[in-house]
């Protein structure tokens, strides 16, 4: 049975320039590999060492990128190593098989959301009415599944996200603040459900996972072992669990450490 490795991408394995958190002198900074270009400009990176580790991982385990990104956003990323057979996008709303959406899985997800949560239109309307244009830079609906705002963090009122979370809780939605983005996501739309489906299809054995945000908590709890970096929403709140390792590394160094942990756990003993 293959080991299944399900990992969040942004601020877990790959990092924007703003999220690198390089604290060493410039002359000692690691060599970086760009893995995403947007509008003709480099956007996301990992270290060259992490790139080598990820290639090894792809040859050792069933690696499944597991992201809240839309399919279009995910396809901008060019990860080193063998192309993943499976990928999970839109926080579990889309399961890609050889790069193509599995229509049956998507239909099952949307049917569940329709039966268990307030409509997306209601939540999006509330986001627009409650948010102040002074600190909102963009508002988006992602894959007709969830909504998010791009905000100026320094102008965001201290309690606004907490108040939004209370409002959303009563409607079957959850709220996550990640960098400059505030996500409103239906509770049944989870990465863990899609990972369980991949495990069922592949007959995978142990599952390993990593992530940094509230939207990764269900994924980490569903895995046999999980890791979170020393930055991000989960680290900021001190979130942990018996099967979760809280790593001290922050920024791009955490990406390297997570990949080392994946490899160590995925390789056969001896």
Brief sketch in words of this structure:
33% of the residues lie in helices and 26% in strands. It has nine helices and 15 strands. Helix 1 (48-60) packs parallel to helix 9 (252-266).
Please tag this protein with its features.
270 residues, alpha/beta, five-stranded parallel β-sheet, four-stranded antiparallel β-sheet, 9 helices, 33% helix, globular
Describe this structure as you would to a colleague.
The chain has 270 residues and is α/β, with parallel strands linked by helices. Helices cover 33% and strands 26% of the residues. The longest helix is centred in the last third of the chain and has 15 residues, at 252-266. It is globular, with a radius of gyration of 18 Å. The chain starts with a strand and ends with a helix. The model has no long low-confidence stretch (mean pLDDT 96).
What is the radius of gyration computed over CA atoms, rounded to a whole number of angstroms? 18 Å
What is the SS-derived class? alpha/beta
Mean pLDDT: 96
The fraction of residues in strands falls at: 25-35%
Uncertain stretches of 5 or more adjacent residues: none
- What does the largest sheet look like? 5 strands, parallel
Number of strands: 15
Ends apart, CA distance between termini: 17 Å
- Note the run of SSEs as H and E: EEEEHEHEEEHHEEHEEHEHEHEH
Helical run tally: 9
- Strands of the widest sheet, in order across it, are 5-1-13-14-15
- Describe the global form: globular
